[in-house]
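Human: I wish I could look at a protein chain and see how it folds. This is the protein in question:
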Amino acid sequence: AVNDPVPVVNVATPDPPTVSSTAPLRLRGSVKRATGAGEGKIRVSWSSSPPLDFTDESLFATPVDSPQLTIKENVLVPGEKYVFTLKARQDGQSADGFASTGEVSVVGPPDLGVVSATPAEGDALDTAFTIKTEGWGGGSLRYTLGYVASGANGREVDVKLLVRSSATSVSGLLPANVSSDFVRIFAVAESANALGATARVDRKSTRL
């Protein structure tokens, strides 16, 4: 029997091998034609364990028939450990070249907390208010607090009064350029121990 030289495949395990479920995952692979393999076209494909649906293009930011693959955020399941395999076959051959990553652990965002603002009412640009958040779960957290304003072309814009801080409250004046009759406040929690996995809560709170 004659053994056809299969494509030479490599794929790197992410470093560190732990990723956030709320961020894209980029996988770096390479495929080379084996010496003496001829000129047939090389076709590549991906698989994983546990399985992803690689026929669903909405899950990926790059083509799935490329050695470089980006899986979109919020696709991988927190708590799972994935192994990704890149395969390559040259036209006219009956065997694949392949390589797999090591296990890639997926960590999830913090458990949702609540956000509130006091006082309940006030005058724009005159009343000082305090945004506070509490009740989050997920270990050591950093918080971003603020409100949503109307920006250019009527688009909503996050106005951040506190950014990635261990503090859980921040004070400021009631804004004039809010998006409705109520100030919509928000809190984003980022897990310091989960590679930046984040969760967000919004609440309509203070009347202008």
